[in-house]
Design brief:
By secondary structure, the chain is α/β, with parallel strands linked by helices. 32% of the residues lie in helices and 26% in strands. The chain has an eight-stranded mixed beta sheet with strand order 6-7-8-3-9-10-12-11, with helices on both faces. Strands 2-1-4-5 form a four-stranded antiparallel beta sheet. Strand 7, helix 6 and strand 8 form a beta-alpha-beta unit. Helix 3 crosses helix 4 and helix 5 runs parallel beside helix 6.
């Protein structure tokens, strides 16, 4: 891969949230939401980010878009370091990066009509005026396969799937190159999930979009992504091309996650061996020393508690952070 094809380059990105206490709001600790992750996303690619709830996936997505400012590290978008960009320069770059939020019920303003919701980014960024705005709204509704008559309605008049389509239309309003899809289908019925996934794939093909697709449903990620990274307690533990990761998982956590995915073949499903992890996910306020996964790992050894595992490439484009691989 050439560097020209890399659209987003995340280098050792850290995001800690301070814990404040007392009358004077002194800092008494930090939440290690994202603890130093490194990956890249290429133009026109879907990069899957998976892990259980609370591991820092959504925080990573928001920090990449600078909705949260990172504590340290670099986020380089098309050659520009977003962590060092402020004010008007960052505002102009925001046109090229958008987000589809997880909850289609909470992410749309209930007091605004669909037309107002879709017009807002166009007005804020001076992307269209007067008649152009109405034309663009109609075009966006056509793109996400909703009736143009819906423009005068309010969000509460739609189903979850329709609301998520409105969210997708809003994300597309400024013709971005990169979209963070933050669990865009987890709040929807299974039948509607497939429609939204197909829509995202069609749009990607049509506009050469790059997606960071955040999810905890491994079968959906397998369907939509070209490369997949697995996250645990603020850190990446494994990253590889989709087929490589699903057929040869190396990290014990990835193996446990994949062992939980049902197989649609009854004979294979009967032979599937579940890897059951013991204990709970440790608190991100006080993560374990060494490897964060060691407290639940069936293979953990003494070195796992003493030393942080190195993020290394063990096979071409297959990265893992584990002492035992």
């Amino acid at each position: 891969m050439t560097d020209k094809e890399v659209l987003l380059d995340v280098k050792n990105m850290v995001k800690h949230f301070p814990i404040l206490a007392g009358v004077f709001q002194r800092q008494v600790g930090v939440v290690h939401a994202v603890d130093g992750i490194t990956f890249d996303v290429r133009k026109g690619e879907t990069f899957g980010l998976v892990g259980e709830s609370g591991c820092g996936k959504s925080t990573a997505g928001r920090t990449i878009l600078q909705l949260y400012r990172p504590t340290s590290g670099n986020v380089i978008f098309d050659g520009i370091d977003l962590t060092k960009t402020k004010g008007e320069d960052l505002r102009l770059l925001r046109r090229r990066m958008q987000m589809i939020f997880q909850d289609p019920y909470a992410s749309l303003n209930p007091r605004m009509t669909v037309a107002q919701i879709l017009a807002e980014p166009l007005v804020v960024h001076n992307a269209a005026k007067g008649k152009e705005i109405n034309e663009r709204i109609e075009e966006l509704l056509d793109i996400v396969r909703l009736s143009r008559g819906f423009a005068v309605r309010y969000p509460h008049e739609f189903s979850g799937g329709q609301r998520q389509r409105i969210g997708v239309a809003r994300a597309l309003a400024l013709e971005p190159e990169f979209i963070v899809c933050d669990e865009p289908i987890s709040a929807l019925d299974v039948s509607i999930q497939a429609q939204v996934i197909n829509l995202l794939e069609d749009l990607q093909e049509r506009y050469n979009l790059a997606y960071l697709f955040i999810a905890h449903d491994l079968s959906v990620v397998r369907h939509i992504s070209q490369r997949v990274a697995v996250m645990y307690l603020g850190l990446l533990v494994e990253m590889a091309a989709r087929d490589e990761l699903y057929s040869h998982p190396l990290h014990p956590y990835t193996q446990a996650l994949l062992s939980a995915v049902p197989i649609p073949d009854p004979l294979k499903e009967e032979k599937r061996q579940r890897i059951l992890l013991e204990g709970d996910v440790p608190s991100p306020v006080n993560p374990p020393s060494g490897c964060h996964f060691r407290t639940r790992c069936p293979l953990a050894e003494k070195i796992c508690a003493e030393k942080d595992p190195e993020w290394r490439e063990v096979a071409p484009s297959h990265w893992v952070a584990c002492h035992l691989v």
